[in-house]
# Entry
Amino acid sequence: MRRYLQWRGYEVQYVQNFTDIDDKILNRANAEGTSMQEVSERYIQAYFEDIRRLNVIDASDYPRVTENISAIHQLIQELEKKGYAYAIDGDVYYKVQNFSEYGKLSGRSLDDMQAGASGRVDSEDSLGKKKQNPFDFALWKAAKPGEPAWNSPWGVGRPGWHIECSAMVKALLGDTIDIHSGGGDLVFPHHENEIAQSEVITLKPLARYWMHNGMVTVNSEKMSKSLGNFTTIRQLLDRGVEPNALRLFVLQAHYRKPLDFTEDAIASAENAWKTLKEGLLFGYQYGQQLGIGDWGVGTRDWGLGSRKGKTNTQCPMPHDATCYMPGNPSTAVAPPCPNPYVESFQKAMDDDFNTPTSLAVLFELAKELRRQGNLLTHQGKTDTSSETIQQQWQTLVHLAQVLGLEAVPKDETDAKQERLSNADIETLIQQRQNARKQRNFAASDLIRDQLQGVGVTLIDKPDGTTVWH
Ligand SMILES: [Zn+2]
# Structure
């Protein structure tokens, strides 16, 4: 989302908050005999490690609840003053029946909702008996013995869960934000409660757009602790799944839809990444052979650095730094001239971030480049002009980068990987014939499989000769 908006010329300020205090963290700290702060810090650091391995750009800001206690106090006091909050025995609750629009995000109405319909409402407030309405939720909770706690106008305690977001949005971004995102499981009550807290104070919409992502399922079942069907990002990466394959796995489903995790889906994402990577490395592999300059092959700085200033005056698309994508500056590329691929990509992404369709554009380019690479290898020439191929490659690299998908050769020899010349293939076929003569079928099958693996099919003729595609 962020990369795409930046590519479209928006300046993005992206704030992501950490809830560094809640019941789960406290329970874990108690179980481990350590502090809430220690547990939070450890998981925050682990999160950063994982997310950076996935090539996710850092947010502009990472506020934490415990750093925003005074902003939280202020907001609760305002709610109290306006008649939307009431304090009982050191707890403070939000009075939902005073907000006539309560339920508008999730399409529920207070009248229709039955008490206890949401587990989260109840588990949040074990002392719920004191509430005037079962859907009133805690803004501030009186401290239990041994819990971390802060002084407040209502006594010693800690913030409720929902208030942190309203307070941090107001403190860091203002009254209305453009996009509020989060998991689909947070629509009710969490986001509903954020709206209730913020909008009665600011009298403005909290967010112009709400983007809720679908949940991850495992073999179509809910991912849950009790089912024991968890796989972590770290486990996948540590077992050798490439970060870009994982990125593809996520992007191939629309973000609002559920994402079904299966071993087959991961394997197919890995295959898809292989195809795409081959396309992204095309310029390194064939650029010199195609004989057009400035493919940037051999220099890592083939992106913005090498093309900047080389404005094509024929091209209406601005070739300037506005399209520069943050991330790895050495791989950033200037935008290609407008072409049907760029247009289809943009049309898909403008339609509520339709990544499955935008990915199809990338694969179309990658497959076309693979075809040209095969022609070049086996027939010595392509059937399209070098200029067109170069533009296709640059378009692919550029658009892939908008989705955070990047590949650079590990070293110079890597650029020539897995490409067999006609002579190489003939040699292997001869070796296979020899193996067959010696009735060493294991060896002959191995050679056939190896060739199959790089897209070469062998056909044994009745006369004993072998031809290949
Ligand atoms: Zn929130």
